[in-house]
Each structure stands twice: as C-alpha cells, then as structure tokens.
Amino acid sequence: MLSPSDFQTYAQWAGLATLAFGALTGLCFLFQWGIRFRLVGATGFMVVLTVGLFTLGVVPFTRTSIPGAVRYSTVFDSGADQVVIVVPPTINQAELTATLQQAASNLFSVGRLSRGEQQLTIRARTVLHPEAGVSEPLLLGQVKRSLFVKEDDNMEIQIFPESLAKLPPAVPLSEQAT
Questions:
Q1: Domain count for the chain
Q2: Quick one: which of 52, 58, 102, 136 has the most CB atoms within 10 Å?
Q3: Which residues of the chain have pLDDT under 50?
Q4: In the chain, which residue ranges form alpha helices assigned H by DSSP?
Q5: What percentage of residues in the chain have a pLDDT greater than 90?
Q6: CB atoms < 10 A from the CB of 16, how many?
Q7: Are strands 119-131 and 82-86 parallel, antiparallel or unpaired?
Q8: 175 part of a folded domain
C-alpha cells in the first residue's frame, strides 16, 4: 500500500508537469498554434490530478486494529447513517464486541450524510445454514456512534445474547486437524 509520503512525491512531480503544461499552453496562445485549446484541457486535467495526489499525501491512511477483533466484510453501506457488516458464525461475545469497536472506528467518515440523524448505526450479522439450501441471516449486535466526532467515547454497543446462543459451538483446534 502506498504511504502518504509516496503521494507527496507523486504530487511534486505532477505539479512540475502541470507547470510545464501551463507554460506550453501559454506559448501556444502566444503563437496562435491550433493545439492550444486541447492543451487547456490537458492542463486542467493535470491541475485536478495534482490536487488529488496532494490531498492523498496529506490525509493519513490509518486503520484501527482492536485486539481480539475478527475479520469482517461490509455488506451494506448507505453512505449515511446505516452500515451492515458480516462476521463469521464462529464468533464469540468478546470478539463481537472488539469487532464492532473496530468497525465503528474504521467506518467513520466526515463525508457521511446525516439525514437528520446524529448517530451512525453499524449492525453485525452472520449467516447460518440450518439445512442444505437454506440460509438464515442472524443479527448479532450493533454499535451506535457519533456521525460527527472521530474519537467518540460514548459509543453504544449492544449485543444480542439470544442470537449468540443460536450460533454453532466452536470446534477446538485439536478436532479441526482430524
């Protein structure tokens, strides 16, 4: 994965190329060359590219890692105040709590729409297969956090114990090898 310093380097080179395109465009207008209007578009594109690379160099790419959290996948994101993640059916309560905390931190974005809501709700679910050809989605818990504050100390984590009781028992590692 590229680091912010890599993007800073790319932004510098793109900035120099933008200046070169701008100078060439200026010469084209000075000498009335036919390619001048095409170079206006190319210079504009270079400006947008340079600004984008500069922004990627300024904004850090950090992901929170909470000990005990398991891997999850985002299966629904409204871009506003609702997100659904899926977790493996072998998860326990401690892992679910850590995973919800990690998802709440990683899925926060200042660009989310509030639509009148003050909180982002992230629901964790899994899919059980009670028999062949049948899938049963099971909501395990949820976390509500602020849509506007990055470091939210007032997150509300709610675990549904009746749903956790429906999960299949974990298989010990000694039995998995056989």
A1: 2
A2: 102
A3: none
A4: 4-30, 36-58, 93-106, 161-165, 173-176
A5: 63
A6: 12
A7: parallel
A8: no
